[in-house]
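Changelog-linked ticket: 6-chloroguanine example.
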Amino acid sequence: MSNRFDVISIFPEYFAPLELSLIGKAKSAGLISIGIHDLRAQTSDVHGSVDDTPYGGGAGMVMSAEPWGKAIDEVVATNPSEIHELIVLTPAGEKFTQKLANELVNSKHLIFACGRYEGIDSRVTDFYKTMPNFKVREVSIGDYVLNGGEVATLVIMEAIIRLIPGVIGNPLSLDEESHTLADEAGTLVEYPNYTKPQEWRGLKVPEVLLSGNHALIAEYRKEQALIRTRNLGK
Ligand code: 6GU
């Protein structure tokens, strides 16, 4: 199970929300530990430069390899884990899914490298891919462009941390969620939920949910999940 998370970014302030809610509680309870690291701490010039113009020309700036190498080495030196999984956030990465969250929760040590600008000098991933105790993945959260990997890191960390035993009050609720429900055709989104009162603004809770017939309720929910999944985006 993941229990150590390190994040490297030029905007450490982005990660203040990790103190809140279930993730904040998981930290206080000692279920996980999180380190947030300022990339600029690894620079030596007065301006704290972390980027430069791209070889080959083109618009925008590229993040330099050296501060990244130093920051990653420092994080590794203080976490003597047998294996380190480096997640580099980039819109050019593989798509983050529930399946990937289920896989990453098994990594003991995750390091998130939040790129900005036009990305990080490619030799950083090339180098760590050659390290025997490293796994490197480039990950995107969807087909749109953000200003940097910080928000994507928050998304991915939340999806992983809630899977760690003890973080969620009722772990059975994980089994009935969107993207965990499945049929022969693939994953489904969740069925619609209702709570009291039985009638709200003239809208009634579906009768079957009040019937107490568990088999019938399960059948109804499966059908609703299928309908919702089929109608996504329509
Ligand atoms: Cl991980 N980074 C950026 N900059 N944009 C994204 C993304 C990541 N995932 C989707 N868009």
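Closing comment: Example verified and attached. The chain has a mean pLDDT of 95. The longest strand covers residues 84-95.
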